[in-house]
């Protein structure tokens, strides 16, 4: 494990504390033009969400109906009633994105898959970078917002479902995550800078409470006029 990853994990609460945590719950408000493009405006404008830290598993509630919630796992998405009845499910959900572009509209299971793995990735960073099969190397630093950010270039194994195989994570002088760059492969490939903002300490962990995503423009700079 690199010295930068050590610093980041310690800054976010430490590995020992993370290993004591089995679930993370939060309240979610998702916004931005992408939800209109995909045909789901306001779907999670006010929702509860939960992830497991030991495996890729995420849930959002409510979903469309007040007594239903979503379930995401890498090999399965489902809509589940509060009675535990499975209303609908899809196996091998990533395969259902074949041929998609940024403008392709989504059905419910496309939405559940994307929001599930995205939330899981965001809430487990930087700890997931220590998982088996994840390869990281420190690359040249980056100057932005009056700071110098150290960067990790990360390659994820096939078993971890996330935006793209290769991503770059930026950490400030305090070791906290500032920015995460990736290409959303299931949307046909994008160039996105995801900013981690307003970190808070909760239960011994430090997590960002806001995320802002912008397209990456020339010179690796974000186009902040677009979300």
Structure at a glance:
This protein is of the alpha+beta class and 227 residues long. It has helices spanning 3-11, 15-20, 33-37, 108-124, and strands at 23-28, 47-52, 58-61, 68-73, 76-81, 86-91, 135-144, 147-155, 166-171, 177-182, 192-202, 205-215.
Explained architecture:
With 227 residues, the chain is of the alpha+beta class. Helix content is 16%, strand content 38%. It contains four helices and twelve strands. It has a six-stranded antiparallel β-sheet with strand order 7-8-9-10-11-12, covered by helices on one side. Strand 4 and strand 5 form a beta hairpin. The mean pLDDT is 96.
Main sheet specs: 6 strands, antiparallel
> Segments where pLDDT lies below 50 for 5+ residues?
none
| Strand residues, percent | 35-45%
Q: End-to-end distance, in Å?
A: 33 Å
Structural class given helices, strands, pairing? alpha+beta
Shape descriptor reads globular
Helical fraction equals 10-25%
Spatial strand arrangement across the major sheet: 7-8-9-10-11-12
What's the β-strand tally?
12
With helices defined by DSSP (H or I, 4 residues minimum), what is the helix count? 4
**Average pLDDT metric:** 96
Topology:
Blueprint: H1 3-11, H2 15-20, E1 23-28, H3 33-37, E2 47-52, E3 58-61, E4 68-73, E5 76-81, E6 86-91, H4 108-124, E7 135-144, E8 147-155, E9 166-171, E10 177-182, E11 192-202, E12 205-215
């Amino acid at each position: 494990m690199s010295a930068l990853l050590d610093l980041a994990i310690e800054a976010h609460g430490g590995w020992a504390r993370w290993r004591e945590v089995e679930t993370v719950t939060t309240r979610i408000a998702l916004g931005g033009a992408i939800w209109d493009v995909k045909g789901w405006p306001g779907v999670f404008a006010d929702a509860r969400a939960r992830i497991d830290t030991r495996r890729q598993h995420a849930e959002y509630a409510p979903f469309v109906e007040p007594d239903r919630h979503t379930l995401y796992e890498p090999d399965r998405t489902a809509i589940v009633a509060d009675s535990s009845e499975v209303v609908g499910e899809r196996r091998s959900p990533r395969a259902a994105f074949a041929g998609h572009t940024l403008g392709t509209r989504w059905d419910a299971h496309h939405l559940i898959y994307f929001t599930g793995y995205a939330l899981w990735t965001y809430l487990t960073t930087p700890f997931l970078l220590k998982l088996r099969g994840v390869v990281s190397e420190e690359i040249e630093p980056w100057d932005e917002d009056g700071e110098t950010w150290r960067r990790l270039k990360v390659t994820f194994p096939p078993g971890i479902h996330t935006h793209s195989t290769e991503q770059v994570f930026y950490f400030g002088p305090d070791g906290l995550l500032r920015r995460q760059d990736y290409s959303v492969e299931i949307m046909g490939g994008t160039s996105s800078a995801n900013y981690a903002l307003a970190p808070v300490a909760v239960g011994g962990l430090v997590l960002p409470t806001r995320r802002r995503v912008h397209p990456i423009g020339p010179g690796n700079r974000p186009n902040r006029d677009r979300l």
